[in-house]
Amino acid sequence: DAGVTQSPTHLIKTRGQHVTLRCSPISGHKSVSWYQQVLGQGPQFIFQYYEKEERGRGNFPDRFSARQFPNYSSELNVNALLLGDSALYLCASSLAGDTGELFFGEGSRLTVL
Amino acid sequence: AQSVTQLGSHVSVSEGALVLLRCNYSSSVPPYLFWYVQYPNQGLQLLLKYTSAATLVKGINGFEAEFKKSETSFHLTKPSAHMSDAAEYFCAVSEVLAGGGNKLTFGTGTQLKVEL
User: Fold this and answer.
1) Over the stretch A78-89, which tens digit does the pLDDT of each residue have?
2) Nearest to B74 by CA among B15, B1, B7
3) Neighboring chain A residues of B104 at a CB cutoff of 8 Å
């Protein structure tokens, strides 16, 4: 079975630009979460979605937004990119998002110049 | 808010030696605790989880962890290190979100180096 797939795997943007990251969960999983991992740190929670509804948002500015589609895939959007947004963005899926057991994709590495 | 503290950002062991990676948690309710491993340029893989059943939890690749409420600890161990265990290890605690569902709060990670 396919795991969590993310695209693109790597991308380079300049300050002020916008980026869209995509995620397809494991088949049958209805919850998707997004995490940001800055180099040398643990992942930080950004969003969780379940059945297209936002269940929670971490301490990130409004420049960060996300949505979940009827097929349970998800997009993370970041506007007005800053140098500090450079990070590995991890998507994770789970059956219902209520136990904490997450299955992670390999991430999208964003570099902002 | 729940949190975890991982003592030691870098741990080095010889191949065949005991691996001990430390994690202490802070939680106002019985926690769900997890250990994840991250290999270079990859996502996170679940090693094991504690969900209030047995206090000694066995995971993949020979790893295990013991939940000790009195010490608020959830240390990860492996009796004999292998070169392939070299990776970064993250301890995490699950926290319920106001809107239902939950999030993981991760520690800062421990880089494990295995030497010949």
Assistant:
1) 999 999 999 999
2) B7
3) 35, 43, 45, 100, 102
